[in-house]
Structure formats: C-alpha cells, structure tokens
Amino acid sequence: MAARAGAEPAPARERGALRIVGAHGGSRALRDLQARMVECRACPRLVAWREEVARVKVRRFSEHTYWARPVPGFGDPAARLVLVGLAPAAHGGNRTGRMFTGDRSGDFLFAALHRAGFANQPQSVHRHDGLRLRDAFIVAPCRCAPPANVPRPDELRRCSSWLDRELALLPRARVLLALGAVGWDAALQHFARRGIPVPRPRPRFGHGAVARLPGAPALLGSYHVSQQNTNTGKLTPPMMDDVLALARQLLT
Ligand code: SF4
Predict the structure, then answer these.
(1) How far away, in angstroms, is 165 Cα from ligand 1 center?
(2) Residue 11 belongs to some domain of the structure
(3) Best probe residue, ligand 1, of 158, 161, 165 (max atoms within 8 Å of C-beta)
(4) Which CATH number is 171's domain given?
(5) Using CA atoms, how far apart are residues 179 and 182, in angstroms rounded to an integer?
(6) Closest alpha carbon to 75 in 120, 29, 125, 142
(7) Is omega for the bond preceding 201 within 30 degrees of 0, making it cis?
(8) Strands of 218-222's sheet in order across
(9) 55-107 tens-digit pLDDT
(10) CB-based contacts of 196, cutoff 8 Å, min separation 6
C-alpha cells in the first residue's frame, strides 16, 4: 500500500477545492444532490469518526489530506447495473473521496468489474486515476465511514434519504447488486419506501440470490468484497465473476 500512496497527486488542493468525483457527467440534479450530500453532518458519531480518522491517520497515509466527508455515488449515470455497498472504509473512501478507492476491497472489486467489462481499468487508486465505469454505478446505504465498518440502524435510517434521492436520479437502473446483507436490506427497504410491496418473509440474502419484485429492478446478492471475505476465501475472484455474469444476464 505504501507504493500506491506515493502515486497519489496533491490531495490537499483537491480536498480544499471540494472537487467531487461522483457521476461521470449526468444530470444537473445528480451533481447538485452530490454537492449537498458531501456537506451532510446529520450523524454526530460518524462525523466525529470520519474527521478523527483523518486527523490521526495511519503511517502509510500520514502525508495525505483525507476527504473526511460523505462519499457520493460513483460511475455512469446512465447505468443499468447499480452496486449497493455498505459504507466507505476509514482509510479507503474516507481518504480518497471515491467509493471503494484506495483500499484492498476496491482492488478486488474493480479488477472484477474490469474483467466483466463494467470498468475501463482494474485499478482504483485515487480520484483522478482515470477510472470510468461503463453501465455501472456504485452507491452505499451509509455515506460516512463508521467505526469498525458498522453503521448503526439510526445512521442507516438517516442516510437512506440520500440513497433514495440518488437512486431516483439513475433512471435506467435495472439490476441492483447488493454487496453484503446490509446492502441487500437497504435495497429492499428502498423498494418499500417507493411503494413496491416487499413480501414477508423478506427475500433472503445470499451469494447469487436473486429477488424479483414487480415494478422494481432485479435485486442480486453478493458477498461483500471486504478483506475479511476475500482474504479467507469466502469470496474469490471466480465467485465474483459468476455474480457479475449473472448480473449481465439479468440486464439482457
Ligand atoms: S451517514 Fe449519511 S446521513 Fe449520516 S452524516 Fe453521513 S451522509 Fe449524513
């Protein structure tokens, strides 16, 4: 990770200018929404944590100026595939200001998206590394880095309005790929808030599980790309390739 850190350009100026790297172009409404999102301070615990992490840092990123704000969605605003993650990592998205950027989870995810044709390159190192998504967009139910990567239910509830509004501005979404059970539940709750009937018992999360609710994008499950999963072999590159191939099938 140290070598990657050295490749990052002038993060202090970027942070000072608040240059958001979220949607590739897209509507004015989406850009405006993301500009408002990055100012959000609605969750005192998460605001304190995202800023403390940015102050204390870790040795390998000691020269970096962290983003330390909510992280907006990233990718192609005309995407049919929308990935629903969990929350930014303290020294990943919270540092770089872009979803899954600058940590091992992102290395795994973007390599897979590149193999599947949804990304123009396999690396995601910093906000201006040239990464572009094709027909894919990434959102999260919690936009601020939480302690121990675990947002509280009240924080997820508060942040759901950002998720709803961002998804409403992705009009071509046909498949939501939930990375983990939290993303799966957030997608189902989002459907319910849209007035889409969600059956009881709720469709169960699993790797490769598919829920098709009338009037909603197809919901597909995948284990999260966390290091805990990828280091232990719970989620392997072939498993991720299979899920993305299934996503591709659901898009056609
Ligand atoms: S988690 Fe969401 S609602 Fe809470 S402060 Fe961050 S952006 Fe705002």
Answers:
(1) 13
(2) no
(3) 158
(4) 3.40.470.10
(5) 8
(6) 120
(7) yes
(8) 74-75, 136-139, 81-84, 175-179, 218-222, 210-211
(9) 999 999 999 999 999 999 999 999 999 999 999 999 999 999 999 999 999 99
(10) 213, 214, 215, 216
- Residue 235 sits in which domain range? 22-251
9 part of a folded domain: no
Indicate the pTM of the whole model.
Answer: 0.92
Measured in angstroms, how far is the CA atom of residue 142 from the centroid of ligand 1?
7
What would the 3-class secondary structure string for 118-180 be?
Answer: CECCCCCCCCCCCCCECCEEEECCCCCCCHHHCCCHHHHHHHHHHHHHHHHCCCCCCEEEEEC
Q: At CA 207, angle to CA 206 and CA 208, rounded to 5?
A: 105
Structure tokens that stand for 234 in this block = 């719970």
Residue 93 alpha carbon to ligand 1 centre in Å: 14
CA-CA distances (angstroms) from residue 32 to 20, 75, 83, 97, 114? Answer: 11, 16, 21, 17, 29
Tracing tokens 């939501």 back to the chain, one arrives at 176
Residue 17 CB-density burial (10 A; 0-12 exposed, 13-18 middle, 19+ buried): exposed
Measure the CA–CA gap between 102 and 114, rounded to whole angstroms: 16
Question: Structure tokens of 24?
Answer: 């590739």
Residue 15 lies in a domain: no
pLDDT of residue 16: 47
Domain count, the chain: 1
Q: Is residue 160 part of a domain?
A: yes
